[in-house]
Amino acid sequence: MAIEKILKDDASEEKGERARMASFVGAIAITDLVKTTLGPKGMDKILQSTGRGNEVTVTNDGATILKSLHIDNPAAKVLIDISKVQDDEVGDGTTSVVVLAGELLREAEKLVAAKIHPMTIISGYRMAAECARNALLQRVVDNKENAEKFKSDLMKIAMTTLSSKILSQDKEHFAQLAVDAVMRLKGSTNLEAIQIIKKPGGSLKDSFLDEGFILDKKIGLGQPKRIENAKILVANTAMDTDKVKIYGARVRVDSMSKVAEIEGAEKEKMREKVKKILGHGINCFVNRQLIYNFPEELFADAGILAIEHADFDGIERLALVTGGEIASTFDNPESVKLGHCKLIEEIMIGEDKLIHFSGVEMGQACTIVLRGASHHVLDEAERSLHDALCVLSQTVNDTRVLLGGGWPEMVMAKEVDELARKTPGKKSHAIEAFSRALVAIPTIIADNAGLDSADLVAKLRAEHHKEGCNAGIDVISGSVGDMAELGISEAFKVKQAVLLSATEAAEMILRVDEIITCAPRKREDRM
């Protein structure tokens, strides 16, 4: 009895089999949750928060679904974590990575039940993952020399990424938007320069890409609505000092005329500041903080367009786009870099007026305006588009491309199977299990489309035993199709990230043989 009392009362530990069981069950439950969202015929999930406002999110993005779940099971947390990392790293494949890790664990469970030591399974998985990666490397296509072909690769990748999302109906339209936006970045993976504005109304088809930069603000009263060859000063400064700003300040005066003097002095101070700003020789002033009526009047008199309350993202982007810097003091105009653009004008989108900067310095930036029926649709469209943009910007850097539709998994599975036949000892069982886990992905894609997965995957496997075959699952016609002809491609980087992260996560969960839950600290009664 004395031995039992090492841990505190509320702490619990699970050892050996039970701990492993808990990990497997948790991880497999998470996999089953997201696996229905995989593939072009995957379904969406509605997530409703129980917090204030009961927000509803409708999404198909694995990482978004898993981020919103509050989960107790430690193994499930590992899977959620890898999907988050996948989202940050390459942007797409968030569901696949969880599904693959879960399938690897499902297979491992059977092996452990057959008395194979987890370390043996892990070393088998390691060999298999290495082999699978090499199998992909041999089959990649790289078109970076040929710009035309590369652009069509990008289009295909974008369409493949979008086809499992809400945008699949207009995927050509959106793929074009995404490719144009990424091509403008000229190889940087900084997606800050692509701004996405969501405006409810219209349909998804009305979304468009704008060459310039759009600020979601209105133009002040009595100011020019249109400026050509604009010189823009982007600032972060308080333009509201026409009041004494010290809290609880008391000013004792002996007559009303003194009050007027104080007010006059304050106005003078403001006028000085505006003069300094005008001294930069600008015709557009964008400020992050608010601008009071008085300075606004002064700006209007000088024929300058003043924009207030441009939120911080907006300001940073605007500075980036127009090639200016954010200024907060105005004493030496020569050291401040002004932004430039050819034309500033007001445009209408739906109900709202926005300010449009066109002909900007940095050709890299652009704005994508999304239109849609409701906020939920727009949010989901933004997530989908973001996925596509991430994948494309990664592909521009690492130009290797693979076919999609379950093709890479089958290629890997075939190679891994051959490795299993050559490997002596118990490891070979683990390697074979790895190949079964890979085949699970095309199986799930087929299942989600309501097709007969056993039949299709068997056909696929037979096809893949021929040399240089491009067969994958064509969910539209419900049969085995040629992925090269159908133009279904994926980025090599995404597949590689999926493979490696999933293997590592599965390995980590397999290594567990004990789960210790700590007792919460008791709150002392401070009575």
From TrEMBL:
Gene3D superfamilies: GroEL, GroEL-like equatorial domain, TCP-1-like chaperonin intermediate domain. It is found in: Cytoplasm. InterPro entries: Chap_CCT_beta, Chaperone_TCP-1, Chaperonin_TCP-1_CS, Cpn60/GroEL/TCP-1, GroEL-like_apical_dom_sf, GROEL-like_equatorial_sf, TCP-1-like_intermed_sf, TCP-1_chaperonin. Keywords: ATP-binding, Chaperone, Cytoplasm, Nucleotide-binding. The keyword ATP-binding applies. Its main location: cytoplasm. SUPFAM superfamilies: GroEL apical domain-like, GroEL equatorial domain-like, GroEL-intermediate domain like. It comes from the Eukaryota. The keyword Nucleotide-binding applies. Molecular chaperone; assists the folding of proteins upon ATP hydrolysis. Known to play a role, in vitro, in the folding of actin and tubulin. Belongs to the TCP-1 chaperonin family. NCBIfam families: chap_CCT_beta, thermosome_beta. PANTHER family: CHAPERONIN. This is CCT-beta. It comes from Gossypium hirsutum (Upland cotton).
